């Protein structure tokens, strides 16, 4: 199974650039999108020719903001939007159940706007981990993909020293990823590629950052440790343009 996650920063804008053409070549089994900024009826058709049998949208209550969308060739036995975590209805979570696996497509909050938004982000983090752990206790394996909005280690952004006091690289945000790993989740990219440097998934639109590869790795796929034997590959599709993020993903044996 090939799973790809991409923060598109506006699905209508990406579609207008024909930036989904790579999907027809790569042919993922599951495609998870974040920050679609659209309601279901506003999503352009077709985005690509590759066939998916399932499509789910969780739009934010605020128009033109946030939102998640999942495409799949796998029939999910259940899909939820986890409003107990995303209680402000920002369309940030799609929770898909298939077999003994629960897949989360998540657009985690950004904490840069204010102290209140940072507090909201940290509560979202805490509530989300409690939720996934409850599902694991019921015997489920977990896959988490999406824009986490935090670079974990100094090798996960180009200029760590300059961003020590910036939300997205604050100690409390990075500590949550530490906690996630301590609870038995695996950062699939680091598991496969080790301490490879200059591997980023987001670049500012300013100052030619992408051309100079001045970026951050803030998009992840995590799996619970019981899925580790099934993990075959993890990747960043840095050549795919159309958003300030690029797709990331894994190959997993089901």
TrEMBL record:
Keywords: Hydrolase, Magnesium, Manganese, Metal-binding. Signal peptide: none annotated. This is Exodeoxyribonuclease. GO terms for biological process: base-excision repair. Its EC number is 3.1.11.2. The keyword Cell inner membrane does not apply. Its cofactor is Mg(2+); Mn(2+). It comes from Sulfurospirillum diekertiae. PANTHER family: AP ENDONUCLEASE, DNA-(APURINIC OR APYRIMIDINIC SITE) ENDONUCLEASE. The active site is at 107, 147 (proton donor/acceptor), 245 (proton acceptor).
């Amino acid at each position: 199974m090939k799973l790809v996650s991409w923060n598109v920063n506006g699905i209508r804008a990406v579609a207008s650039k024909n930036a989904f053409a790579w999907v027809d070549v790569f042919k993922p089994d599951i495609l998870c999108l974040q920050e679609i900024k659209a309601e279901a009826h506003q999503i352009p058709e077709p985005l690509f020719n590759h066939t998916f049998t399932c499509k789910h949208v969780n739009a934010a209550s605020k128009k033109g903001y946030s939102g998640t969308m999942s495409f799949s060739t796998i029939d999910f036995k259940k899909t939820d939007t986890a409003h107990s975590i995303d209680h402000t209805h920002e369309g940030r979570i799609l929770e898909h159940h298939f077999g003994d696996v629960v897949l989360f497509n998540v657009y985690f909050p950004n904490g840069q706007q204010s102290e209140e938004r940072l507090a909201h982000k940290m509560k979202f983090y805490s509530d989300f981990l409690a939720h996934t752990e409850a599902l694991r206790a019921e015997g489920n394996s977990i896959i988490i993909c999406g824009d986490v909005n935090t670079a974990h280690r100094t090798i996960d952004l180009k200029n760590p020293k300059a961003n020590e006091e910036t939300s997205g690289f604050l100690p409390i945000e990075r500590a949550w990823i530490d906690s996630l790993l301590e609870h038995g989740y695996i950062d699939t990219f680091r598991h496969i590629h080790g301490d490879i440097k200059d591997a980023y998934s987001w670049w500012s639109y300013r100052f030619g950052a992408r051309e100079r590869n001045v970026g951050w790795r803030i998009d992840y796929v995590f799996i619970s440790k019981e899925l580790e034997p099934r993990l075959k590959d993890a990747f960043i599709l840095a050549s795919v343009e159309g958003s300030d993020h690029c797709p990331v993903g894994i190959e997993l044996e089901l």
